[in-house]
Amino acid sequence: MSAGGHAGRDHAKLSASGAHRWLVCTPSAALEAQFPDTGSAAAAEGTLAHEIAEIKARCKCFKRGEAGYMTKAAANKKLAKLAAEELHTEEMETCTDEYAEEIYLQYLGFSEKPYVYFETRLDLTGYVPEGFGTADAILIGGGKLAICDFKYGKGVPVSPDHNPQLMLYALGALDKYGLIFPITKVILAIHQPRLQTGLATWETTPEELLAFGEYVKERAALAIVGAGEYAPGSEQCRFCRARQVCRARADHNIEMAFNAALGALPPIITAQEAGEYISRGEDVAKWLQDLKDWALGACLRGEEVPGYKAVEGRGSREWTDQAAAFKALQDGGIDEAMMYERKALTLAALEKVVGKKKFGELAGEYVEKRPGKPALVPESDKRPPITSVDKAFEGVEV
Ligand code: SF4
Asked: Does one domain contain both 208 and 255?
């Protein structure tokens, strides 16, 4: 598929990228269908980054004469065109360079020269009615299959470990290539350069994937007809298009927030209760914000939301002609130095402007990573736990 294929990707009713939701909450796909998929700036940005990433990865992996090879001139012409897009940034260049490099490292890691397929449409109908998906990069050789996915988002880190989207792609790839290439080992890999360094990988087997496929078939049979139980939860509801007005989510959060068992209990809550409350309230604040966003939209559309109305927010003042205003101030005797401040960019902002690679080469030796402020996260988080006791004894033999 051409680089331009990214923008034209269709969406299956039960999409692979939404599988983490409809596998858990089977009626969600049918409910979501009532709400338009409006897209977003982040999605458009992701599409552009994918187009650039694909060209760069092709140039890394294919030699002259190989199917999929792109001449340097053709690649540069396409890249120049994409670089002229409004959403293009220097950071995008760095991230896509890194992606191409990571794919090439995967390529080199095969025991024999692998076959490489970019932007490959995979038929998933063996598992999901009308299902299909498009894998960013597939590498096959020496009994190994690698499915690599480029994620340009920086909102939520995505792990390849039991990732249903990639597991579905792997099943599609096994169906497509399994008869030609015997496969015993499968690597699922995600490159999410704005949130994590390098390629995160998870290894599985065709047997584990096929067992997952059987589970998918059962869940998809329910999901395609909107059957099964609603199953609200912060993971699956986060990007669900029905999240603002879904009754199951509303009921769940009301229950979580207000229906705690009360009784004659001691005046101070225990650590056990604190953990329970935090976990119960996980999605409550997000749900309330989603609900407020929806209610504001309803008021603006002229609908009535009892007890609420839309008003004009606090405005801000803006120049109509900043250059003319500054000139008038200077003509009026205001010193130019009073009108400007010279301020260093933050480390992150400067790295973004300069580009990660160049920044590392020029100023990397002056950067040190200090530990972040302690943060409370769910037990499932991969980072090791810390305590202030650990800190106190750091470097001390006990
Ligand atoms: S908002 Fe949550 S509970 Fe409601 S349909 Fe979507 S995923 Fe299911």
From this structure: no
Tokens of 218: 């059962």
List the structure tokens of 393.
């004894």
* pLDDT tens by residue, 47-98: 999 999 999 999 988 888 888 888 889 999 999 999 999 999 989 999 999 9
Residues 254, 207 share a domain? no
Domain that holds residue 275: 243-263+270-300
Element (H, E) at 24: none
CATH number at residue 45: 3.90.320
223 alpha carbon to ligand 1 midpoint, in Å? 12
Residue to probe by mutation, ligand 1, list 14, 23, 24, 28, most atoms within 8 Å of CB:
28
With a 6 Å cutoff on the Cβ, whether 29 touches ligand 1 is no
CA-nearest of 112, 109, 120, 103 to 68 is: 120
DSSP characters over 123-145: E-TTTSTT-EEEEEEEEEETTEE
How many other CB atoms are found less than 10 A from the CB of residue 340? 8
Q: Three-class SS of residue 108?
A: helix
12 Cα: distance to centroid of ligand 1 (angstroms): 18
Radius of gyration of the chain (CA): 26
Least confident range of 263-267, 306-310, 345-349, 355-359: 263-267
Tell me: the pLDDT tens digits for 127-166? 999 999 999 999 999 999 999 999 999 888 899 999 999 9
Q: What is the DSSP string of 37-104?
A: ----HHHHHHHHHHHHHHHHHHHHHPPTTSTT---HHHHHHHHHHHHTSTT--HHHHHHHHHHHHHHH
Q: Is 223 touching ligand 1 by the criterion CB < 6 Å?
A: no
Examine residue 54 and state whether it is found in any structural domain, yes or no: yes
